[in-house]
# Entry
Amino acid sequence: MSKFLVVDDEPADLALLEQLLRRQGHDVVTARTGAEGVELAARHCPDVVLLDILLPDRSGLEVYGQIREVDGKVPIVFVTASGSSTTAIEAMRLGALDYLTKPLNVAEVKRVIERALEVRRMSSSPVTVDPPQSEPEDGDVIIGRSPPMQQVYKAIGMVASQDVTVLIRGESGTGKELVARALYQFSKRAEGPFLAVNCAAIPETLLESELFGHEKGAFTGAVARKSGLFEIADGGTLFIDELGELAPALQAKLLRVLEDGHL
# Structure
């Protein structure tokens, strides 16, 4: 069970989000002003924050920055009455996980909630490297004391401090994601988000939009701007799993982003 903070001054939207989250078994605290939202964020340490952009006492963007000072890793999802709102786009640029448009679509809200919880789990769950067996550990563990594993630990330590792209190779089930998370947690980007995408699990037609995002009207059905994972993970780490499953054309686009360092 996770804890959510919902900040919205519209009673109907606040009630809808609270009811939906409680039905999924989550704890929910609510606020109708920015000041109250910041206070509750500090008091309750929520796992996810749903934040309205237009609040009666201050801008949602201002509240976003204040909550970030309380918890730099908490996923924050903005709620806006306009899909073309420039403030919503600015929020995404600053590092919000996603934004929802009003009137709220229940299926879309559930999708974003699931994604936010996964981001929180992966950012918060520690990865321990070969702990002594007498000391129980929370989270996931990389186990191994053989010479090859020692080389892996050394490589993680050397690479984690650098701002570079890392290629992690290994058979399925050998712990590539654990290594990626260890690199993230020991890096200078540990205060940012950790996002993961499995290329084999997303249809080719949707994967490009998932990675790079799209603008409103870019294609049929693009009714609003969508930030891609590269943009959302800015300041943190993006783990791209099953890279070999990408279509050659998409691999070329990915290579250009990795080489140039910008979208």
Observations:
- Residues 2 and 26 are 5 Å apart (CA to CA).
- The radius of gyration is 20 Å.
- Confidence is low (pLDDT under 50) at residues 132-137.
